[in-house]
Design goal:
single chain; globular; 252 residues; 2 strands; two-stranded antiparallel sheet
C-alpha cells in the first residue's frame, strides 16, 4: 500500500506539472498567442512536455486550432456533440492522432511552428523523451515506483485531457454564447482548463477565470512570469469573439 500511495502521489504531481505546461505553453502561448514566453522559459516548457507527454507542440497546436475553427460542427477533431461523450472521454487521444494524420493539417494550421533545430535533434523523438522521463523517475524513486507512477500518470493525463473536451462541451455553465461549458471543479484539477466556456468566448485571453469565484491556478504562474519579465500578455482585457450572454443557471 505504501508503494501504491507513493506512486499515486508522484503520478499526480507529474500529471499536474504536465497539465500546467500544456495550458501555459501549448494552449495559451503557442496555440492562441495569448502570451509570449521568453526563450529560456519556452525551452523549459518544451522539455517538460517532451519528458512527460511526448507531444510534438506543432501537432497539438494544429489540432487545437482546428477545434476552434470547427467547434462542435463537422470538422471538429474531438467533439462529444459529434462523436459522443464516452468516445471523447475515453478515446480522446485516438481522435487526436487521427487528426494529425490528416494530410496537410499540421502544415496548414501550425505553419508558424515549423520544426527548428531543437525539434529535429531532440523534441521530435517522442519515445526518447518518454523513456528518459521514466529513467529520471527510476533514478530518483526506484524502478517499482517509476513504472507504477508512469502508468498512473498516463491514465491521469489522458483522462483529464479527455475530460476537458468531453465534459467541457457537455455539462456545466454557459455564461457566454458558445457550446463549451464552465466547471469550476474541473478547472481546479486542470490548471484553469475547466473554464472552457470562458476560453471559447475569449480564446486570446491569457486568463481563463473571467468571473467571481472562478479558479485558474495557472494564472498566478503567468503573472509571476510577467513580473519577472519572462512573459508578456497579449491583451490586458479579454477580447470576446462572441456576444456576451449571461445566464448563470444554464446547464447542458
Amino acid at each position: 500500500m505504501h508503494l501504491f500511495l507513493k506512486s499515486l502521489l508522484l503520478a499526480f504531481v507529474v500529471t499536474q506539472i504536465a497539465i500546467f505546461s500544456t495550458t501555459i505553453f501549448l494552449h495559451r502561448a503557442a496555440s492562441h498567442r495569448a502570451l509570449k514566453l521568453s526563450k529560456p522559459v519556452s525551452l523549459a516548457f518544451r522539455t517538460i512536455i517532451w519528458l512527460t507527454t511526448g507531444i510534438k507542440p506543432r501537432q497539438w497546436v494544429a489540432v487545437h486550432r482546428v477545434h476552434h475553427a470547427y467547434t462542435d460542427v463537422p470538422g471538429d477533431p474531438h467533439s462529444p456533440v459529434l462523436e459522443g461523450f464516452t468516445a471523447i472521454q475515453l478515446a480522446n487521444v485516438w481522435f487526436y492522432r487521427r487528426a494529425i494524420r490528416t494530410p496537410g493539417l499540421v502544415e496548414r494550421y501550425a505553419r508558424d511552428l515549423a520544426p527548428d533545430r531543437y525539434d529535429k535533434a531532440v523534441f521530435d523523438r517522442t519515445y526518447v523523451g518518454l523513456g528518459l522521463g521514466v529513467v529520471i523517475l527510476f533514478l530518483v524513486f526506484g524502478w517499482e515506483v517509476a513504472l507504477l507512477a508512469a502508468a498512473m500518470h498516463t491514465v491521469m493525463y489522458l483522462g483529464l485531457s479527455g475530460a476537458i473536451n468531453a465534459i467541457g462541451h457537455s455539462f456545466g455553465r454557459r455564461p457566454y454564447a458558445n457550446l463549451a461549458t464552465n466547471n469550476n471543479w474541473l478547472a481546479l484539477i486542470t490548471a484553469g482548463e475547466g473554464l472552457h466556456n470562458n476560453h471559447h468566448a475569449a480564446p486570446t485571453s491569457a486568463k481563463m477565470a473571467l468571473g467571481p469565484r472562478q479558479i485558474d491556478l495557472a494564472w498566478p504562474i503567468i503573472r509571476l512570469l510577467v513580473i519577472t519579465k519572462q512573459a508578456t500578455i497579449r491583451h490586458r482585457e479579454p477580447k470576446f469573439v462572441n456576444p456576451v450572454r449571461i445566464n448563470k443557471g444554464s446547464f447542458a
